[in-house]
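Hi R.,

As promised on Friday, here is the backbone we talked about, encoded as C-alpha cells. Could you run it through your design pipeline when you get a chance and send me back a sequence?
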C-alpha cells in the first residue's frame, strides 16, 4: 500500500543503492573484476524501481488529499482538479527535485538496459558515475528537501497550487525539460568514464552521440513549451523575456548543440576528442548550475522557488563536488592527451569547429548577462539590470554568422574541401535568400529583422538544397531521385530537418519584431482598430470554475467588415490563494496570432469599463513550430540504425594513454 512512509523509506533505499552503484562498479572496473562490474546494471535498475515507488507514493498522497504531508498541504487543495493534483507534485521545490532524481534513475536504468554492447569496464564506470551523481540528488531530497515531511496537526484543506501553474502546458513542461537537463548526465558520465579509463576514440563518439541527441530533443521541446506557456498564460504578449530561468535552460542547450556536432567529428574523424569531453562536462554542469541556482534563491525569477539558506549551502557543496571534481579530473588527465585527426580549415570539421566557437561564444554572452547582476549584488551590494537590449545587441551579431555557415557545413567534404564547388551548389539557395531579403525590406522595419529573415530563409533553402543534391533532384529521373531519397540515412535527413527548423524559428522571431499592440480601457460595445482588424467588446460575464471564479469577455473580431472570430479572454480569481490570473484568448491562422487579454474592471456597476490588451503577432506560431521541427529532426536522426546499433567493440589495450585531440 502506497503511503508517505513507504515513499520516504523507498527514497532512502534508493540513496543507499545509488551509493553502492557509484562505488562497487568503479572498484570492479579498476580491478577488472567481472563479478563486481556485473552488479552495476542490477543496482541501477533497483535504484530506479525504488525511486519510482517513492514518486508514486507522493502522487498517491496528493490524489488522496493527505494534508498531513507538508508538501501536499502547501501545494494542493480538495477543490483542485485531479490533473493538477497529479502534476502539482512536481510544481514545487521538493517534488521537482524528486522528479529530477527519478529521471536520473531512469537514465541509469536505460544505460543498463541498452548498453549491453558497451565494453564491460566502460559500462560499469558510466553507471557508477550516474550512481554517484544520483547519490547527491537523493541526499539533497532526504536532508533539506524532504517531500514527505509531516505537519501536525494536519489541516482540513491545503493552501492550493500557484494558479499560474494550473495549466496543461506548464503541467507537462517540467518533466520534459528535466529529461533534457538530466539526459545530459549520460554524456557527462561517458566523459568521466573515458577520462578514468584513459581512452577516447571513434567508438566512444558513437556511443555518446545518441544520448546527447535524445537529451537535446527533450530540452528543445521543454524550452519551447516554457516559452509557449509564458506567451499564452502570463498575458504579456511576449514569448521570451531573457528571464534568468529561461537563460538557465538556453545555456546548456547551446553547449549541448555544440556537443552533438563535436561528437560527430569524434565518430567520423577521431578529432576534437578532448574538446568533446569538455563540452560533455560543461553541458551537464550548466544544467546543474542553472537548475540549482534558481532553487537556492540566487537567481530571482517568476519561475523561482522559495529561498532557503540550508538548501543553498547544500547546493553549493554539491556543485563543488560534481563540477569541481570533474574539472579536476579533466585537468589531471590533460597532460597525457595527444593530438590526432588533422584536417584543413576549409572542411566539414572546420565548419563544425566554427559552429562550436560561435555556439560557445553565445553561451558565454548569455551566461555573463545572467550571472553578472546577482554577483554584483552579492559582492558589492549594487543592483544592476541586464535585460533584452543587452542580450539582443550581443547575441544577434554572433547568431547571424552561425546561421550563414549552417548552410555550408553539411555540404563540405571531410578533411579537406574546396569552397567554390560548394558555393556553386548553393546558388539557388543564395538567390532565394536574396529575394527574401528584398521582400523583407518592404514588409519589415529595422535592419536586424531584415537580415535575420534573410538568414533564416538561407538556412531553410540550404537545408533543402543539401537534400536535393544528395537525391540528384532535377538532375536525374524522378524515380531515381525518389529511390536515392529512400536510401538516404535518416541522420542526414534529420540534420536537414533540424536545420530547417532553426530557420523557421528565426523567421518567427524576425516577424514578431513587427508585432503591434495597444492597451485600451473601454465600456461594453466599444470598437477598436488594430492592424487592420476591428475588435468589439460585446459582453463581460461571470462564470464559475472548479476552484476559481472567472470574468469572461466576448470579443468579436472583423476585417473589412468580414467576420473573423469570437474570442473569450478571461480573468480568474482563486479565492484560496487570493490570486488573480489571466486566461488569454488567441486566434491563429498560422501566419499571425490575434491575441486578446482582459484586464481590470473599473467604474460604477451600471457603466463599467474594462482594460483590454490587444495584440497582432505575425508568424508567432512559427517560433514553436520551428522548435518542434528541430526536435523531430533530432528524433529522426536518433532513429537511424547507425546510431541505434552500437559501435564495434574496441580493441583491448593495456596502455593507459589517452589518444585525444
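Update: got your reply. Pasting your designed sequence below so it's all in one thread:
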Amino acid at each position: 500500500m502506497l503511503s508517505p512512509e513507504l515513499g520516504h523509506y523507498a527514497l532512502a533505499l534508493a540513496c543507499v543503492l545509488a551509493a553502492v552503484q557509484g562505488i562497487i562498479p568503479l572498484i570492479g572496473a579498476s580491478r577488472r573484476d567481472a563479478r563486481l562490474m556485473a552488479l552495476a546494471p542490477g543496482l541501477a535498475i533497483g535504484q530506479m524501481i525504488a525511486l519510482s515507488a517513492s514518486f508514486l507514493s507522493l502522487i498517491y498522497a496528493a490524489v488522496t488529499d493527505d494534508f498531513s504531508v507538508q508538501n501536499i498541504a502547501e501545494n494542493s487543495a480538495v477543490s483542485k482538479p485531479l490533473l493538477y493534483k497529479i502534476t502539482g507534485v512536481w510544481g514545487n521545490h521538493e517534488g521537482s527535485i524528486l522528479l529530477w532524481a527519478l529521471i536520473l534513475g531512469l537514465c541509469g536504468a536505460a544505460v543498463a538496459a541498452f548498453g549491453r554492447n558497451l565494453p564491460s569496464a566502460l559500462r560499469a564506470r558510466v553507471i557508477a558515475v550516474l550512481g554517484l551523481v544520483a547519490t547527491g540528488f537523493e541526499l539533497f531530497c532526504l536532508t533539506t528537501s524532504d517531500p514527505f515531511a509531516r505537519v501536525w496537526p494536519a489541516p482540513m484543506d491545503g493552501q492550493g497550487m500557484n494558479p499560474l501553474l494550473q495549466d496543461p502546458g506548464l503541467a507537462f513542461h517540467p518533466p520534459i525539460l528535466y529529461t533534457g537537463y538530466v539526459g545530459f548526465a549520460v554524456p557527462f558520465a561517458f566523459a568521466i568514464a573515458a577520462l578514468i579509463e584513459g581512452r577516447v576514440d571513434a567508438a566512444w563518439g558513437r556511443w555518446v552521440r545518441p544520448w546527447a541527441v535524445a537529451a537535446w530533443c527533450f530540452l528543445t521541446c521543454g524550452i519551447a513549451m516554457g516559452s509557449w506557456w509564458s506567451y499564452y498564460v502570463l498575458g504579456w504578449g511576449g514569448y521570451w523575456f531573457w528571464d534568468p530561468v529561461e537563460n538557465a535552460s538556453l545555456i546548456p542547450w547551446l553547449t549541448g548543440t555544440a556537443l552533438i556536432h563535436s561528437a560527430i567529428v569524434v565518430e567520423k574523424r577521431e578529432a576534437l576528442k578532448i574538446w568533446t569531453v569538455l563540452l560533455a562536462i560543461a553541458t551537464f554542469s550548466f544544467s546543474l548550475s542553472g537548475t540549482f541556482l534558481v532553487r537556492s534563491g540566487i537567481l530571482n525569477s517568476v519561475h523561482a522557488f522559495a529561498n532557503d539558506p540550508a538548501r543553498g549551502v547544500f547546493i553549493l557543496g554539491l556543485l563543488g563536488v560534481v563540477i569541481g571534481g570533474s574539472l579536476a579530473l579533466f585537468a589531471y588527465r590533460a597532460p597525457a592527451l595527444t593530438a590526432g585527426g588533422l584536417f584543413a580549415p576549409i572542411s566539414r570539421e572546420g565548419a563544425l569547429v566554427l559552429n562550436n566557437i560561435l555556439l560557445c561564444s553565445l553561451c558565454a554572452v548569455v551566461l555573463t548577462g545572467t550571472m553578472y547582476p546577482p554577483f554584483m549584488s552579492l559582492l558589492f551590494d549594487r543592483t544592476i539590470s541586464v535585460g533584452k537590449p543587452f542580450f539582443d545587441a550581443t547575441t544577434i551579431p554572433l547568431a547571424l554568422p552561425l546561421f550563414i555557415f549552417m548552410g555550408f557545413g553539411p555540404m563540405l567534404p571531410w578533411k579537406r574541401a574546396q569552397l567554390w564547388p560548394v558555393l556553386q551548389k548553393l546558388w539557388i539557395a543564395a538567390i532565394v535568400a536574396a529575394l527574401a531579403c528584398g521582400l523583407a525590406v518592404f514588409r519589415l522595419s529595422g535592419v536586424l529583422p531584415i537580415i535575420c529573415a534573410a538568414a533564416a530563409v538561407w538556412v531553410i533553402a540550404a537545408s533543402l538544397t543539401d537534400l536535393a543534391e544528395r537525391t540528384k533532384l532535377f538532375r536525374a529521373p524522378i524515380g531515381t531521385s525518389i529511390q536515392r531519397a529512400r536510401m538516404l540515412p535518416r541522420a542526414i535527413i534529420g540534420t536537414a530537418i533540424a536545420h530547417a527548423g532553426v530557420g523557421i524559428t528565426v523567421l518567427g522571431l524576425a516577424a514578431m519584431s513587427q508585432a503591434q499592440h495597444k492597451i485600451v480601457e473601454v465600456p461594453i460595445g466599444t470598437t477598436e482598430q488594430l492592424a487592420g482588424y476591428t475588435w468589439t467588446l460585446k459582453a463581460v460575464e461571470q462564470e464559475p470554475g472548479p476552484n476559481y471564479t472567472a470574468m469572461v469577455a466576448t470579443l468579436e473580431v472583423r476585417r473589412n467588415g468580414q467576420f473573423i472570430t469570437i474570442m473569450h479572454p478571461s480573468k480568474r480569481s482563486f479565492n484560496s490563494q487570493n490570486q488573480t490570473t489571466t486566461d488569454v484568448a488567441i486566434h491563429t491562422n498560422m501566419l499571425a496570432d490575434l491575441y486578446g487579454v482582459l484586464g481590470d474592471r473599473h467604474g460604477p456597476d451600471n457603466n463599467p469599463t474594462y482594460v483590454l490588451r490587444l495584440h497582432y503577432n505575425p508568424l508567432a506560431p512559427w517560433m514553436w513550430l520551428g522548435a518542434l521541427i528541430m526536435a523531430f529532426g533530432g528524433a529522426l536522426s536518433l532513429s537511424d540504425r547507425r546510431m541505434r546499433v552500437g559501435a564495434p567493440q574496441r580493441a583491448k589495450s593495456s596502455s593507459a594513454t589517452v589518444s585525444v585531440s
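One thing I noticed while checking it: The chain has 21 helices and ten strands.

Thanks again,
M.
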